[in-house]
Design a protein that fits this description.
It is a single chain. It contains 22 helices and 11 strands. The protein has helices at 3-6, 26-40, 55-64, 82-93, 105-121, 138-147, 167-172, 178-181, 198-208, 218-228, 232-249, 256-267, 280-302, 310-317, 342-355, 381-398, 412-426, 439-442, 457-463, 536-548, 563-576, 586-596; strands spanning 43-49, 70-75, 125-130, 159-164, 184-190, 448-454, 467-471, 479-487, 490-495, 498-502, 511-520. It has a 6-stranded antiparallel β-sheet. Strand 9 (490-495) and strand 10 form a beta hairpin. Helix 4 (82-93) packs parallel to helix 5 (105-121) and helix 10 crosses helix 11 (232-249). The longest helix is centred in the middle third of the chain and has 23 residues, at 280-302. It is flat, with a radius of gyration of 27 Å.
Length: 607
């Protein structure tokens, strides 16, 4: 829409990894040099970088520079078994194999070895490039290492380039992968663009699109760096939206104000929605909730108890229907990576649900308006329930069956539901395995929310709350287990119908960092809060921040998220090491509850 307005031949800030728009900052130049080194030297070359820093764009540029005597196998989807990886390499290199029979790993390696020897005799070399390599399992990484053993007396027959997020470097630091780590001949971590690079980056892309430089005012460039922190992908998205805003307003230059508006639209999804109580879907949900309550009350009034179900009903009644104590949300610890935005957490959560974490049952992003109200202030049903469970878990720590982490003879869906059921029970809620609600859609009924994360054991210990782990074997879909309790360096794990005591070492080949926590929402929770919002949850936030930070307490309007409250949120986020964006999303809610030490199930019950 805006290309004609600015005389552009193409969109300058597309997020597609188009090599034409590659901007080689000092850091990108050095990363590219490391990649070129991998074309000519044996062993491994490792390139890491945060999401959106330009790794894939560099890779596309590298492929355009491929020497004619080099064969390249490009692996885009590393979530593969060992056999699938070898098949992918054969397919990429054009190596024929018998698809009608099941080949052993040795047969694939023999086929590849013969092919590599033939190409070597022809004066050709072969390189394998694996993108998003942080998703490789340790077993596949070990097989890749073994492939580098294919060699002649003079040189290696196969060169490997691994690109991935920082978690890849952490994985390679594991003791069992030390042999692979020792074979890395070059490694480089790609940082975001520096402040002084932003002007050159923006003008470079404008020129490549046929436009003129300085379409962005100097103040707009400074704002771009401030809101993107130098991440090229975010710069592209925000700059594209800012150009569209300039076109709509009929101006010829992008200003700081337009960049800030664009950033708010991109990073604060739904920032321009009307207040929740004015949205039509709220009215519909409220009417539906009232009808359901009326029907339920009529049914309870007119129904006589069935003697055959009296015991079951009595058992059910001991589980609190309202497990959320008044004015409480779950206790966690300092688990958020410094500088990670609340919006990026939401994006990551949705990606995990779509790709891995909740693969067996896709999640709906819709927030359920009709939620159970918190119980009266005082005792916490969830903690009382957990204390009852604790004595049972103590006995399970003492008498354990041998560790068997193999996939249960259940469907992935069933393992997922059983894991969630175990964690819900610690919150004082019963999640029926045949519930029509998928696990995370059930959460709002219990005053909870799901938050998908990726981390390590130190993060789980800091969170100190039961979690659902995503486990993998050679199957195409994950299975799930519940991490319920910790004693010393051992953890109580429920996998399907089995309970066992495990150590982190036991899970090293099954768990690769993906997990889901259940966290308790504040009263009347309907999503993240930001300046300008007006509803009762703001009052809860206002009073709690005054309690945590009495030195900066303010007496503004209770239900309105005004500028003073925004400044108080920013101060809290800064103190806690969160991105100080003034938006109260899941990480900020969780950190507030941690500072208030509100009741919630604990992973380490001795803490």
């Amino acid at each position: 829409m805006y290309t004609e307005h600015f005389g552009l031949e193409a969109e300058p800030f597309s997020i597609a990894p188009d090599p034409r728009f590659l901007f080689l900052s000092e850091a990108h130049n050095e990363a590219l040099a490391h990649l070129m080194y991998g074309f000519t030297h044996g062993g491994f070359v490792l390139i890491t970088g945060e999401v959106g820093t330009g790794k894939t764009t560099l890779l596309r540029n590298l492929l355009d520079r491929t020497p004619p005597e080099l064969d390249v196998a490009f692996v885009l989807n590393p979530r593969l078994t060992v056999r699938e990886l070898l098949e992918t390499l054969c397919d990429e290199l054009g190596v024929p194999y018998n698809t009608g029979e099941v080949q052993s790993v040795k047969q694939y390696i023999d086929i590849l070895n013969r092919h590599l020897l033939q190409t070597h005799q022809m004066g050709r070399s072969t390189v394998v490039i694996i993108d998003e390599a942080q998703n490789l399992s340790p077993a596949v990484l070990e097989q890749i290492r073994l492939l580098t053993n294919l060699e002649t007396n003079e040189r290696k027959l196969l060169r490997i380039i691994l690109l991935g997020q920082p978690e890849l470097a952490e994985m390679l630091a594991r003791n069992e992968l030390r042999q692979l780590a020792q074979r890395i001949t070059a490694r480089y971590h790609l940082e975001p663009l520096r402040r002084q690079d932003i002007r050159a980056y923006v003008d470079h892309r404008l020129r490549k699109a046929g436009g003129q430089p300085y379409l962005f005012h100097d103040s707009a460039i400074r704002a771009l760096y401030r809101v993107s922190k130098g991440t090229p992908r975010l710069i592209n998205i925000i700059a594209d939206r800012a150009l569209l805003g300039a076109y709509v307003e009929g101006v010829s230059q992008v200003t700081e104000s337009l960049v800030n508006k664009a950033a708010k639209e991109v990073l604060d999804q739904g920032a321009h929605r009307p207040p929740w109580y004015k949205q039509p879907q709220f009215a519909t949900a409220a009417v539906a909730a009232i009808l359901i309550l009326l029907l339920a009350s009529l049914w309870l009034t007119d129904s006589e108890p069935d003697p055959a179900t009296t015991n079951a009903a009595a058992t059910t009644s001991t589980t609190p229907t309202n497990s959320v104590p008044k004015n409480t949300i779950p206790v966690t610890s300092d688990s958020a990576p410094i500088g990670q935005t609340e919006s990026s957490v939401r994006e990551t959560t949705q990606q995990r649900r779509g790709e891995n974490t909740l693969a067996s049952e896709p999640e709906s992003p819709t927030i359920i308006a009709a939620q159970r109200q918190p119980t009266a202030a005082g005792s916490s049903p969830s903690v009382q329930y957990q204390s009852q469970k604790q004595s049972e878990n103590q006995a399970q720590f003492q008498t354990q069956t041998p560790i068997d982490l193999s996939r249960p003879s259940l469907s992935p869906r069933a393992t997922q539901r059983k894991a969630y059921q175990a964690v819900y029970s610690l919150w004082g809620n019963t999640y029926p395995l045949d519930s029509p609600d998928i696990p995370c859609n059930f959460a709002p009924q219990a005053g909870l929310q799901c938050l998908a994360r990726r981390g390590g054991w130190s993060e789980l210990n800091q969170l100190n709350t039961p979690v659902i782990l995503e486990l993998w074997d050679d199957g195409p879909r994950p299975y799930h287990a519940a991490l319920l309790e910790k004693q010393a360096d051992k953890y109580l794990l429920q996998l399907g119908d089995r309970s066992m005591t495990v150590s982190p070492k036991d899970l090293r080949d099954s768990w690769f960092g993906a997990y889901v926590i259940l966290w308790q929402t504040p009263p009347n929770y309907l999503g993240s809060l930001r300046q300008g919002d007006e509803h009762p949850t703001v009052a809860w936030l206002h009073s709690r921040l005054n309690e945590i930070m009495p030195e900066s307490a303010n007496s503004g309007p209770d239900n309105l998220f005004d500028a003073a409250l925004h400044d108080q949120v920013v101060a809290f986020q800064t103190r806690e090491g969160l991105l100080a964006d003034g938006i109260v999303g899941p990480l900020t809610w969780i950190r507030i509850s941690d500072r208030l030490n509100l009741p919630a199930p604990k992973l380490d019950t001795a803490s």
